[in-house]
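User: I'm new to structure prediction. If I give you an amino acid sequence, what do you actually give back? Let's try with this one:
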Amino acid sequence: MKTYIVNSFTNEPFKGNPAGVCITTEELEADIMLSIAKELGHSETTFVFQQNENEFLIRFFSPKMEIPLCGHASLAASKVIFERNQSLNVIHFTNIQNLKLKIEKKDDNTIRMEFPSYTTIPFTVSNNLLSALGITEVINCVYNEETQIMLLHINDCNVLQNLTPDFEALYKAHNSINGVLVTALSNKNDFDFESRYFWPWSGTNEDPVTGATHTFLAPYWGGILEKTKMSSFQCSSRTGFMEVELLKNGKISIKSTAQIILEGVLRI
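Assistant: Good question. You get back a string of structure tokens that encode the predicted 3D arrangement of the chain. For your 268 residues, that looks like this:
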């Protein structure tokens, strides 16, 4: 099958978040897709199956498990499809949860994705988890039920950028979440807020740039900043960026760019 490696949420090769993209000609068994995701070794690999001209089934796998929704792999798959089908400007993905995602190619070479908007509820974070992250003070702790991700709001983006978690201790500190997102107000002129995402429970230790967390991160910061349009920076070592907007239809849009760095054929 045609297979690509794409760097998402960046305008430079070897930055952003790398994803595998496999263009399938038939629906594959889950164990085969998981094996391919393990082999490629990225935080996610996505598998795309075309149903008609602009509608596609899409599934996402980390090296450990199937992930229902993944922003950077959706962006990566969209980049590949738009390059393979130059006449297309709008495509629609359907994921394993039957969630419909609308994707648009814009004139400025960006890609705009519509994702659901999720809420958060108050949550309690343990001292063991904070210690494993290297965090001593938290402004707020909330939880998103749809993604099973904990959000920790801290007061200094420099502290956020310099976090060096003990991932073995972090993994042992909780047993019922998929990941923990740490976020802070940005001190950069071009960005509103920053984040990093750690998920040793369900994927790799750290995801370089994470679109799916913005399904609840954007509404969270929108409420604090009283904004509907914001710029987000993920301050991992690879870094990445996106523009987010809270839409009147109750969804959010995520807009950014991606770079295809490898194209080949996978033999199974």
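You can read the tokens as a compact description of the fold. Here is one thing that stands out. Residues 71-84 form the longest helix (14 residues).
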